[in-house]
Amino acid sequence: MSGACRRVSVTVSGDAAQATELAAALVRHCREGDRSVAIRLLCTPRALDTPLVRHIVPRIVNCEVRVTEVELDEALVIDGRVAVVRPAQESDTRSRVMEDPAAARTLELLLACAWRGAVLLDDYERLGGHLNAELRQRVLERLYSGCTDADAAREMKVSLRTYRRHVAKIMRDLGVNSRFQAGVRAAEFNLLPECG
User: 127-173, pLDDT tens digit by residue?
Assistant: First the structure.
């Protein structure tokens, strides 16, 4: 990481050994004082309770954390020119260094796609305890299908007032002011039912 000039992208699986190594590297990076390098940590939910994410990352300047439900191999990509990968599914857990710039850049592009589909850590934590509940999912399904409030409340066997209270809570949790914005944010967070 000390050779990075622009960007470091890392997938964090929740593996204790990887988190410890990465925490040490980030602490060294901070001590060296280079604050111009952007650091992106793409974490699985398992990684959120590691000391790396809870205690080290909040003190790192230029470090952004996003959460993905997609299982990824452990990877570290430096400036799109060199990468270290440790496949999660193989019995041989040794890391492999990729010094071919084309291969490293390809991996960086794949990680960028996963990054765009991931949720900011703060949003993930704020929404995680609220919108995964079955009732909230049912409300989102009604909003998505275009039901009127009265029809949705009747289908869910709740009062119209209760249904509207659930809609208002979802809008607050998503940080939006309209139902349309709620639909857009819910799609971004993959909270909507599958289409088709």
Answer: 664 444 567 778 888 888 888 999 998 998 888 888 898 888 888 87
- Give the CATH number of domain 125-188: 1.10.10.10
Give ranges for CATH 3.30.870.10 in the chain: 7-117
Angle formed by the axes of helices 179-188 and 134-145, nearest 10°: 120
Considering the entire predicted model, what is its pTM? Answer: 0.63
Is residue 170 within 8 Å of residue 136, measured between CB atoms?
A: yes
* Pair of tokens at residue 170: 């979802």
CA distance 75 to 161: 49
Residue 101's nearest CA partner among 76, 77, 131, 136 is 77
Q: Tell me: the pLDDT tens digits for 105-126?
A: 888 888 888 888 787 887 777 6
| Domain covering 7-117 in this structure, CATH number | 3.30.870.10
